[in-house]
Write a structure and sequence with these properties.
15 helices, alpha+beta, single chain, 59% helix, four-stranded antiparallel β-sheet
């Protein structure tokens, strides 16, 4: 029984194959049509190439500072880790995210004019680059406020007379100019049309000016970042384009914009910190002057002339604890400054000076939340330059800023608790030594307290002064964040159009169309016969 069934299936399969072979002309026609489509694909699809570059991300290790003579507070700078402006650890994912941000890509788009393409005549959607005869630009206001694209149809005769037709959501308009450059004023904004070269030729073409942010979003799809290896700071950046020079310029400009952005951020942070430091230095100077006057009045009142010699023996025993206490109390001052600055309502959306976070007793537990908070504030400020305050994106980033500010509050409180516990322990140990020094006159011990206040103020003043000097030096020192280790180049083989894809598509199209046509024809014939039979039966009844 099974053998009979297998024979029937074999016969049926043979019948199907024979049926399709008898109608070979259908497949020939389908093959010819598919060949035409494949040929059109190969002819009209621009030859697309892949461009690549390798770059190394450089970790910012900060600028080194000079050693300072700080008297009894020597080594304080080293203990704080404040020899210079400290740099953060490098995270490849974070840096690649910065490169691919819409802010960075938008700047790339504007520099290269990618949002104002010139379409090649008689070429479907082919955007020219260096061979574009015209350049279309917009003023800064239009760049930031433009929400929809504007189409320009331009015709130039042999005499250089220019006729421009525009089309936008506000309707169509016509302009006539005797020559170029010319300014075109529309409800969307002000545009300038000019020749790329000085030569004037009769031409007719189409241009389009679109919002840069939209082009930046689509541009991210053609750019790929990849780590060169797991143990290096080298990344590969690739992009695809049918204009070779545009692809190369895109990679070079992307690197340049990223470096410029990083440099501007650091300079802005440094200027904010210098302003803050100047205010604090003035206050500390006044405070230090008051302490010195108190010491002089105390010595005169109690007729003390050479007290340092008298208490030298005891100071040497207590020196280690005193230096540590001075260091921690100076750290406490920095924490208090950071706490007051962050909690001040006027500073809600102001950058937190990094010197406050880098020098506190909290270490990375405080500096990292502050750096994240500052990065969010910079992103918010950048976003407000191109959008309104009621934009959902602004609302979202405001929530992010509030969340990060709470993290800063928490890190400050933790730093305070840690510092207080350490100070309590050190003061307890110091008291044990002081109890053993029962023979030290009360006047001398009071004098030590005055000297300690003086040293704390001196140490704190020198810390801030060193910070200011480092920040001033850093402003004039522009360092590249990205170093190109392999210049952008064009890979030898094009990635489109692909002949293999055309061949596979032609075969699949031929077989599919032929089989579907013959199968449909056969089923239509069967259906027609059944319908005819049913109608004939009704007539006989």
């Amino acid at each position: 029984m099974e053998s009979i069934q297998q024979d029937n299936e074999t016969i049926s399969l043979k019948q199907i194959i024979v049926y399709y072979l008898l109608h070979w002309r259908v497949f020939v026609v389908a093959g010819f049509v598919s060949f035409i489509f494949a040929l059109l694909y190969l002819i009209f699809t621009p030859r697309t190439y892949e461009m690549m570059t390798r770059v190394q991300l450089i970790e910012d290790k900060g600028t080194s500072g000079s050693n300072l003579n700080m008297g009894d507070a020597s080594g304080l700078m080293k203990a704080f880790g404040l020899g210079g402006i400290s740099g953060g650890s490098l995270n490849l994912d974070d840096e690649m995210a910065k490169c691919m941000s819409t802010t960075t890509l938008k700047e790339v788009v504007l520099r290269l004019g990618l949002n104002a393409p010139c379409y090649k005549p008689y070429e479907y959607d082919y955007k020219m680059y260096d061979d574009a005869p015209l350049v279309l630009t917009a003023d800064l206001t239009t760049q930031e406020t433009l929400e929809t694209g504007v189409e320009f149809k331009i015709r130039i005769d042999e005499n250089g007379h220019v006729r421009v037709k525009t089309k936008s959501e506000y309707g169509k308009q016509k302009f006539d100019f005797q020559s170029l450059p010319a300014e075109i004023r529309l409800p969307e904004g002000s545009f300038t049309l000019a020749y790329r070269t000085e030569s004037v030729k009769p031409l007719s073409l189409k241009m389009e000016y679109t919002p840069a942010i939209g082009v930046a979003e689509s541009l991210s799809e053609s750019i790929l970042f990849d780590e060169y290896s797991k143990n290096s700071n080298v990344i590969e950046i690739t992009c695809t384009d049918y204009e070779k020079k545009r692809g190369v310029d895109l990679l070079n400009t992307l690197i340049d914009v990223y470096n410029s952005w990083e440099d501007s951020v650091k300079k802005k942070e440094s200027l904010e910190s210098i302003k803050f430091l100047d205010e604090r230095l003035a206050a500390i100077t006044s405070e230090l002057s008051d302490v010195e006057e108190k010491i002089e009045r105390y010595k005169l009142k109690n007729k003390m002339t050479d007290i340092e010699h008298d208490v030298e023996f005891y100071v040497e025993q207590m020196k280690e604890f005193q230096v540590k206490i001075i260091e921690l109390e100076a750290q406490g001052r920095l924490i208090d400054l950071l706490d007051a600055y962050v909690k001040d309502p006027q500073n809600k959306y102001n950058l937190v000076p990094l010197m406050l976070a880098s020098g506190d007793g909290g270490g990375e537990s405080t500096s990292k939340p502050v750096m994240s908070y500052n990065e969010a504030l910079l992103e918010r400020e950048k976003l407000l330059q191109s959008t309104k305050a009621d934009n959902p994106l602004v609302t979202q980033i405001n929530k992010q800023v509030d969340h990060l500010r709470k993290n800063v509050y928490l890190s400050i409180e933790n730093a305070k608790r840690t510092l207080d516990l350490t100070l309590e322990d050190l003061r307890g140990k110091e008291k044990l030594i002081l109890d053993k020094m029962g023979e030290v006159p009360t006047l001398e011990r009071e004098y030590i307290d005055f000297r300690r206040q003086q040293e704390i103020s001196q140490a704190f003043y020198l810390i801030l002064l060193q910070k200011r000097e480092d920040l001033v030096m850093s402003i004039g020192d522009s360092k590249e964040r990205v170093r190109v280790i392999e210049q952008p180049y064009i890979k030898a083989k094009s990635i489109a159009p692909r002949k293999l894809f055309a061949l596979i598509g032609m075969i699949v199209f031929t077989m599919f169309v032929g089989v579907v046509y013959l199968f449909g024809k056969e089923q239509f014939g069967v259906l027609k016969k059944e319908l005819w039979s049913a109608r004939g039966g009704k007539k006989k009844d």
